[in-house]
Amino acid sequence: MRGLVFFFCCLVALASKYHSLNLSLNHRKTYEYTYEGEVKFGLGKPNRAKSGARIKCNIKISGESPQAFILQVSDVTFAELNGISGKSDFNQSPKLTQRLAAQLAKPFKFEHSNGHVRQIQAAPDVSETTVNIVRGILSFFHATVKTSPTVYELEEAGIHGMCQSNYATEINKQTNNMNITQVVDIDNCRMKAAMQNGMASAVLDKDSKQRGESVISTVQYLYTIQPTEEGGIVKSAYGLEQQHFSPFNVKRGSFRMEAKKEMVLIRVSEGGKPANVGQLQNRGDLVYKLVNSDVNIPLVMQDLAEPKAKAVRMIKQLAEDHKNQINRETTEDTLKVYQLLRMLQDRDLDEMWVELARNDEHRRFFLDMIVEINDDRVLKFLKKRFQAKDVSANEAVQALLIAMNHLQPRQTWMEIMNMEFIKSNLHMWPAAVFSFGSLVYKYCAYHSPCPQSAVQPLLDLANEGLRNRNETEMVIALRALGNAGHPGSIKTIANFLPGVAANPVDVSCRVQSAAVQALRLTARRNPHNVQEIALKVFLQKNCAPETSMLAIMVMFNTKPSAALVSTLTAHLEREKDIHLASFAYSYLENIARSKTPDNHYLSIYCSLAVKSLAAKFGRLSYNSRSLQVDMFDDDLLMGTSASINVLGGPTSVLPTEIMSKNKYFAIGRIMRLMEFGIRAESLKQLFGPSIPGFKGDFSSSDFQAIYNVLKNWESLPNDKPIMSAYSRSSGQEIFFVNIKKDLLEYIKAVSPSAPKGTPVWAAIELLQKGFSWHWTKPLLSIEARLLQATTLGLPVEIAKYYQTVTGITMNAKAAINPPQTQRLGDLLNADISLESEGVMGFTKDFWIFHGINTELFQCGSELKSKAPVELPFKLSAKLNVGKKLLELDIPACKKEFELISVSSNVYAVSRNIGDPESPKRTPMIPDESNSQQQPTPNNWHRKANMCAKSSIYGVGVCVDYEIRRQYFNNEYPLYSILGFTQAAIRVVPAEATKPVEKIHLEVNGNPTSHPMTIRHLYETMRRISKERSQEQSNSASNERETRNTPQPVVSIKAIAMSGNQNLEGFDVTLYNPSEGDTLKAQMIVSHVGDAANWKMCVDASAQSPAQSSANLKAKISWGAQCKPYEISVTAAAAQSSASRPTLEAKVQWANVPEEMANYCSRYIPGMALLSGFNQTWESNANQEVSASIVSASSDSIDITIKLPKYTVFRQAVPLPFSSTSFREENAERNGQA
């Protein structure tokens, strides 16, 4: 028994020894520490700029009760870093130090027990940013200490959120202290202290993330815990957080953040009375709290006092700056206005409207910029304007649609569906409903599970349309549900689908089409249910084949399993509808060869399906087809995909629906770009299964046959759309229109028989009186932001902003002779002259920011790019439609102007509220060209100025560029965007041989009566005729040329007018001497002027594709009377010895300028090497380059190019499309032959 007691006593003693290591604070003692936290941003390379911030202070903790403690902060200093690594250090910022110290000087209260910090309290006037900094300090007192085991992991709440922590402990036998290493996985937190805006429509792609990451973060802490009788106290602590960010793959270079903090115990003293804390507010636990992120735009820092007055002043200034043309220097000020507007209350916006609405320029800028408030304040403001009817319909539509697409996803926007002004506007209502669906989609992206109430208004709208049998309401509601992508809408959507609805419904094919497409975004959120519905629709034999095709597309949006693909394949093997089979097979083919990560596994399943179906469907080539091309680069972590789908059936020669879409892959997400679709609706009924007289060669007789069918449009039903069209952006439908029969009545308003009183007539009369027009529009297209906590309690942000300011200023006046009298047709034979002058242009600004962003200071890395485009114009135009004549007179260039430019650089930036007007900005890559030190070997600098000037027209175009880079092989492709870039295209005056008053351009579609053109034609055709026949007497030759000369089709002239002096310029004449099945084209370019005899002659011919020996020939000659230089080109489709389709081309020359001959030998080898070609030195035919392209497989080709002294070749060059069908069809033709 004594031994047992002794054993238990030892256990108790041992347990108490280790228990004393658990983090604790004694409320009867005072603890004093030094604290230092700093963060740096840069590239982690020498001789590159970095920025950062540092906070130093002393902290004192005293007890109020066993679990309540008071934190006091003193001796605060704030310092900034901005400069070249190794040459710059932190510099104190006195103003910000004073401001921060005043906040931190107030006491903070917190609870502490069992090593965890809870319930932080602070004075009401202490900002949340300051409280977050305190959270960063207190996080050193927040850890789970275990003595056994020595390595353990657990999920716990910390400053980053609810994240997984991995601990490793070790006892220092000399000091008896415990050393703890804690690693926090902040990339996979269950509940993360982070916020993401502007990327809801970009789908996360897990397969892309397997190939690389664009953001990686790591956090680790090192503690030294000293055991005491009360428990373990933190003797010292160190925290390090690193974040790597790249617009590409972080494996190949990244922007870097390094945030570190350190706390060291100075002394522990007995007693100590806590400070008088006064009134405190509960600020929550240790988890970082996001601070008014909408207002804290990361690219600007300004004093936010009196925001309304400043916003009014800046809007007026912007309107003035861009009044005549876009001022590229002030376009960035729009961000400051957005920031100010986001601080205003409802009453402030109403007062601004009263002040700004009276001036058209101020009014337009205000309405264009208020939409960026992005919460319910803008909706309330617009609702008041609608009710007061003090905005036009055009203003209302623009403001509402942009506002709704930029709103943050909060449920306050649900009142949109009840706005009477919107519901009563036929044009605004569909767009508003679509926008509502988009808001639901964004809301569900951030709230899971997404409440049914969010989508209920759209469900009610769809059910109401079904009850009323209102087809238009059904289609609009279903399309809006497609935007919403809410899983709770599946049951309602199924009610419109044959074979799926619980109660059979009889709806048209266009409603079925809208219903199937309504599942396109839900497919990602609830793939199982969507797969089940899509398969049921596909298996419905009484369903239109076009609807089944859409079901296949939706099914593959769910990324089906191998089993489901096999099931579909088995049903396709028994499919009798050749249109459906053709589409399905081509769709499977596209996915089988896809290179994008989202189709990685699916491409394997589909390749097996294609092999199974190839024997039966491989040779089908019907109108119903799918074509897709895509690519993806692992280093860039970027890719793109483009597809077009043609859906048709046996009832009409026209396809029922044509759909195109584009996708962009980047940073582990899939961004849907623009999508377009058009549906033939009742138009296909007009054409039927064939078109009488249509041969398929698109000759004039084919167009006449189509026209003959269209003349019967009046037989179409009045209540059905002739056709419909839609467009989508970021996967969201933004435009949909039904073109009905009554729209054709409006087309009559522009027909020649249209009488006075039509809108077109009114516009012409206004133009004759003369008018001035000015329009500007700022638009923030992208505001994508990711904010998350750092160990310092400061928010690190990755942000992308893209905005455009567009402007047009124009003055115009027209004259008509003779004036039109009764109908528009009078204009066809009238001489119309137009005088116009103005300028049009835009400036695009783009930023990427990676750094700390608070209302007090900002520091980080910033890519800044600007691209202004400006086109001033002044011209006189004359037009005669009946004579097919257009003339333009452009004044001579007297003043240089910049047409387009692009500039960009990456900076280390620092801003602080103590001196907001003086931000620090250091180029990330220093300019060593002016430095006295030796440039680094990795520097690359190119600068050039190239001009092409015409002495005839007195004008030139210059291209300037300057590029500075520092490159490292392991940082490709990141280094490609690092450094200074400046490029511009300028139009400049040039010294002319004769004074140029104006440049005269003329396009003549009926040039047979033009004397100068005939003279040139006669001389040139005489030379061509001599080359093609034996030389005869001059009189006989002239007689034959006159008889055989083809009629010119069009003549184009560009002449420099020099007063009464002789004209000089160029004349281009096109001819069409086609005969039978051979298509021919001729072009003659002539130099017009004194003793001018330079000409270029182009003679091309192509045999009909129906002929077995289809080929193309072209001959180009130039010089004096089209001599002495000459090149001939031939291309022909052929068959290789292995019966593989082949395309052969050949370029031959008798005499060419030496520079042109040397170009091939200088540049082709290098270009071929960069493209992956091999090269062999061998003697080939002189003065000839030949190329052979052979189909190597279903999706690759072999290329061989022979030059006089060497041959370059490459095998198995991948194709973006499959040539299987082409090869099989070609083989079939050969067999028949």
From TrEMBL:
<dbReference type="InterPro" id="IPR050733">
    <property type="entry name" value="Vitellogenin/Apolipophorin"/>
</dbReference>
<keyword id="KW-0325">Glycoprotein</keyword>
<dbReference type="Pfam" id="PF01347">
    <property type="entry name" value="Vitellogenin_N"/>
</dbReference>
<dbReference type="InterPro" id="IPR037088">
    <property type="entry name" value="Vitellinogen_b-sht_shell_sf"/>
</dbReference>
<dbReference type="GO" id="GO:0032355">
    <property type="term" value="P:response to estradiol"/>
</dbReference>
<keyword id="KW-0732">Signal</keyword>
<keyword id="KW-0758">Storage protein</keyword>
<feature type="signal peptide">
    <location>
        <begin position="1"/>
        <end position="15"/>
    </location>
</feature>
<dbReference type="InterPro" id="IPR001747">
    <property type="entry name" value="Vitellogenin_N"/>
</dbReference>
<protein>
    <submittedName>
        <fullName>Vitellogenin 3, phosvitinless</fullName>
    </submittedName>
</protein>
<dbReference type="Pfam" id="PF09172">
    <property type="entry name" value="Vit_open_b-sht"/>
</dbReference>
<dbReference type="InterPro" id="IPR015255">
    <property type="entry name" value="Vitellinogen_open_b-sht"/>
</dbReference>
<feature type="disulfide bond">
    <location>
        <begin position="163"/>
        <end position="189"/>
    </location>
</feature>
<dbReference type="Pfam" id="PF09175">
    <property type="entry name" value="Vit_b-sht_shell"/>
</dbReference>
<dbReference type="InterPro" id="IPR015817">
    <property type="entry name" value="Vitellinogen_open_b-sht_sub1"/>
</dbReference>
<feature type="region of interest" description="Disordered">
    <location>
        <begin position="1024"/>
        <end position="1048"/>
    </location>
</feature>
<keyword id="KW-1015">Disulfide bond</keyword>
<dbReference type="InterPro" id="IPR011030">
    <property type="entry name" value="Lipovitellin_superhlx_dom"/>
</dbReference>
<feature type="domain" description="Vitellogenin">
    <location>
        <begin position="25"/>
        <end position="658"/>
    </location>
</feature>
<feature type="region of interest" description="Disordered">
    <location>
        <begin position="913"/>
        <end position="938"/>
    </location>
</feature>
<dbReference type="GO" id="GO:0071391">
    <property type="term" value="P:cellular response to estrogen stimulus"/>
</dbReference>
<dbReference type="InterPro" id="IPR015258">
    <property type="entry name" value="Vitellinogen_b-sht_shell"/>
</dbReference>
<dbReference type="GO" id="GO:0045735">
    <property type="term" value="F:nutrient reservoir activity"/>
</dbReference>
<feature type="compositionally biased region" description="Polar residues">
    <location>
        <begin position="928"/>
        <end position="938"/>
    </location>
</feature>
<dbReference type="InterPro" id="IPR015816">
    <property type="entry name" value="Vitellinogen_b-sht_N"/>
</dbReference>
<dbReference type="InterPro" id="IPR015819">
    <property type="entry name" value="Lipid_transp_b-sht_shell"/>
</dbReference>
<keyword id="KW-0597">Phosphoprotein</keyword>
<dbReference type="GO" id="GO:0005319">
    <property type="term" value="F:lipid transporter activity"/>
</dbReference>
